[in-house]
């Protein structure tokens, strides 16, 4: 069924109160953009907020930047399609990697004073890896921005009945306006506001959804009856050779999702790392992903549960039924929320999608300007020239995102699409990064060819072996886990083989770039006893990991 007809079926019963709430929110967003514009004097201000923000602001922005289409529509769609297995994307597929980023990798990022992940590769491996990673990351940012635009278009279709292309264009232009006005500061402060608006919209939806199906016990009983016991279990049926709705066993879940995809995304995705780099000091930068880890642990309660309820309310949801998995949340909003609360929920969704779009577009303008345009195309211009260039690049990124939104529209579950992109772009980058960070002997040539080989191998596995039917994997997500493992293993093998055959960088030029070394002039982080307990990164990190592990207990038996 065409998307515009589907939107008519999902039209939300909004009234003047709901539209008033929406209007107030949009005025606040634009006001923040205009206010942030006054502080933009240099490129550092535009790209990294002058490295002046406190940890609690960057921490909330860190989680809000991720709490976009990836979370709301994507994880609800995952819940409807794969069941409780979706919690793996949080407790094993996010928390350990976020802790690793804060405790191990942020000292390298922040201490080297880089403005992007590719810039770090420039210092470690040289211009070839730098340019390749800049191009790959720019492409990934635009593709992921398109996912957020498409998700936003779904909500606008349901809200106003607009055709999909109109919704995409209007949404993109609004995001373009507030990012161009205030740069990263505008995006970050709006993300803090958006985080609380998102919670205000999703918590009532989740509560009413559970009431609709008789609470968690009623939901669990209904899903067990229709989908089987494994659908409401995190680990049931994941033995090697067993069948389960996710189409993956425990080994591919742990290695593919929990290691390759998770660490690849959280440690190298500059849309996230950029928030930590804008913190006022190293301690605040380290605490940014650790502070974000605690709300991340509980996000499944408000995004996965609505997807599970949608499957009970609309058992035929999925391809060919006229209702896609992506539309689980708009379906519940239409059926469950009263006016006023509906306005808050719609505002929360729009806020989430704009946060995700803004995160990727602001990362795109930073990487393209600083890692492609400035070093290789137009060199040695005044700082003001590059700020102006970044504003133009922002517009280009939004326009390209409008185009890639129509690619996302071809997927019934946008999470499947996103994980495919992560296996192509993030995992190979993480492979090269993590080996080079711990192995001084690794060479620039090994870094370049390892990155390229990992990317190509993931694409070959997905498009030729999986899509071509040469290997039998039950689901797209199972295929993504395998692609991630293939990318990591291939990249590692290329690095290990090439490194002894090529010349390494002199050890004295690796200060601050390899574990165990520190860049000249960079202060040591505060000792554990020199800060209050809630400011100690190690304590925060291990606390998050223990709490995430405990969350598995109710779903493991």
TrEMBL record:
> From what organism does this protein derive?
Streptomyces pini
Which NCBIfam families does the record match to this protein? sss
Q: InterPro entries under this entry?
A: Na/Glc_symporter_sf, Na/solute_symporter
Is Transcription one of the keywords UniProt gives this record? no
Q: Which GO terms describe its molecular function?
A: D-glucose:sodium symporter activity
Please tell me one Gene Ontology term that the record gives under cellular component. plasma membrane
Membrane topology term:
Multi-pass membrane protein
Its name, as the record gives it, is Solute:Na+ symporter, SSS family
Q: Which Pfam families match?
A: SSF
* Chain segments annotated as transmembrane: 16-36, 56-77, 89-110, 131-156, 162-181, 193-213, 248-268, 289-314, 341-364, 385-411, 417-439, 446-466, 478-501, 538-555
UniProt keyword annotations, A-Z: Membrane, Transmembrane, Transmembrane helix
Q: Report the family membership.
A: Belongs to the sodium:solute symporter (SSF) (TC 2.A.21) family.
The answer to whether keyword Transmembrane applies is yes
Gene3D superfamilies the record matches: Sodium/glucose cotransporter
